[in-house]
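pipeline/complex-builder :: batch 7 item 3
reading input block
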Amino acid sequence: MLETTGAKKPVTTNPILDATGVAKNYGAVAALRNASLSVLPGEVHALMGANGAGKSTLVKILTGAVRPSGGRIQIRGETREFSSPGAARRAGLVPVYQEPSLIPDLDIASNLRLTRTPVEPFAEWVRELGVNDLSLGATARDVPLAIQRVLDLARALAAEPHVLLLDEMTAALPADLAERVVDVVRRQSAAGRSVIFISHRFVEIAAMCDRATVLRDGETVGVLKIETGVEERIVELMLGAKIEKARGVTHGARSTATVAGPPRVAVRNLAVGKLQDVSFELANGEVAGVVALEGQGQDELFEALAGARKPSAGTIEVDGAAVRFAHPADAIRAGLALVPGDRSEALLMHRSVRENIALPFSAPFRRWGPIALRKERATVTAAIERLQIDTRAQREVQRLSGGNQQKVTIARWIAAETRTILCFDPTRGIDVRTKREIYRLLRELAGQGFSVLYYTSELEEVQHVCDRAIVIFGGRVVDVLPVEIADEAALTRAAYGLPRQSEVAP
Amino acid sequence: MIRLIRRNAWVAGLCVLFILLAVTTKLIQPDYGAGDFGSLMRAVLPYAFAVAAQTVVVIAGGIDLSVAAMMAVTSVTAAAMMNGASESHALFVVPFVLALGLCLGALNGFLIVWTRVPDIVVTLSTLFVFQGVALLILDAPGGGAAEWLKGLVVGTVPIPFLPESVTAWIPKALIVLVICLAVVWIPLRRSQLGLSIYAIGSSELAAFRSGVSVARTKIAAYAIGGLFAAMGGLSLTLSTGIGAPIPGPYLLASVAAVVLGGVALGGGKGGLLGPIIAVIVLRLVRTDLTLLAVDPNATTIIEGLIMVIVVMLGAFLAMRGRTR
């Protein structure tokens, strides 16, 4: 077609980025078989796929971090081969990775110099993205994680890329910053730039993407236009089979008989870090959600409960008896175990799935003598089966997908028969299917009398798993919402410390 | 000013330590004079270059066990080439030996990058290789050095506008050290390469993603380390007038000074000034202990204790500074 100039932006059908038939083999394992991705100028293009579908591999190939085993990548009709991230950058494809890529020991100014990013536009983008008090002399390590991600984005924007690639950009961001990001991305596309957006959040995808490419098992299985109702189609494509709508799926398992006796865990007037005075109870067989904006002290709460940090005041009771944890081992002995959002904090990445699950059995220092291998094997196998962990790459946990890694963490505590599981944003960056498996699993556990404390940064999760939501703001519990009314809007209001809207009769 | 001190708190602390030690020295030995300081600096010279070599590599996130061996190779090469040769021949020898050091270092870096064998293993094996090479060049201490080169590190130079009582305390060895280090370090620190060295030491993955060529930067860091080691080897030949094929005690001393100098062994943090002052401090401690007639076997114990205490104290102060 001839190049016709539209009213607002130039509309051409020539894709700015066109990848076809991309394949990547790691030894005998094919991470990508036949992936294609075509991005038009001025388009926000979502790249979706369940964990293990090959998304991250495709991203690595597009950004020059990994060389493909086959296929062709064209930028503006020119075949390019990216041998390094630097080469991809020069070709106009600038990524923002899932983890911050600032050099931790350099200050911001040096980080900019390293990538030869002009300072002025960078500073402007930082302000635009809602961060006002940034000092260029600050060492990157000292900047909060969420802000680091924003700086990454600002740095990418300042490079004026043809194609901006955002990998789970909003996953670790608090709601207000995420909103800004969505806003800026939308304006980027209006200005004619292309964006590849990788996210598990349908809300954001619906808000800003034009089209979506769906990957499954290393292949592109569909390219869809984003319109109302497309979510179901995408999920269908991602999973390769029709699945029931998420909402309400887990509700059937709810309302287990309340167990008599003292609550499993009671927190009374706890002060730790930013928390000043927090009290709540966690019943046996309950999944209690914790909802808070970024940096309200939820990390400290979970660390205190897991024995990794000493509270400065207040008490923690387990089964009615006050406890004092000097070490996570104490908490684990009392039956409280943490499942952190960052898998690398929980797992021995270079060890096998089995060893990782069996770790709590062999960890007690005072237990001498050989490890009871037979018993261990049986327990571990049972846990693996129960969680349907994909064990094809079980010799090294780091080779599993993020979702499977998280399952290993949970499996470990199930195998150790830990009665209370503290989940801190356990589904961060995990695909929809695995997320649902985790929801179902937690509900099942609750049905058997396990207790779960569940912090999530994705508010919609609360209604999937929790029985009620404990909302923390300004160092205190500001509200406890029953699950029936704990929808995203209500939780958001509460998380910002606003009072409930006039109660609607159920 | 306060900010400057705060940013360089570690170096400032070392300076205080140095001054305390200097005062102690004067108390122990009231007639400790400029001449003694001059010979201290001459003794420090090879150590300081070894430390500089180690510092660059450690900042890049590596470690170089072959520092002392490289010094031995370059030292004997220089001594053998200058043996019986004319004075002007040395003009050619010096750049040749420096280039040799650069190449040896680059070889280390290249092997690490190419074979993907851990740096500690690669440089351990090159340590043995270089030791052997040094003995092949000169099987016993020998060779010679040009007179004008030897003169470079002995005595003092008159500096205009400074009275002699001051210049007496600025030995040539110190001036040579400062110039040699500054000529390499200052441009490096301001270049993209210098930034990249810090970057790969801090986080190799983040550096890679920022578009830094990790392999090339690593080779460059080891090469610069080799260059400093060659300077150290030359300084050995200059101060003794001969080449010594058996590596001196410079490897462990260099690692010690790097640690004491506030450079994180994990890489990415620290500068060159700290380790250099640290190595002078360590030498001065040894002088003091000798002056006090402490059993030489006990000296190493005291040196070890000082290192542990200073590093612990530093970490403790840094922690308190952060929580405040």
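note: The radius of gyration of chain A is 24 Å.
queue -> next item
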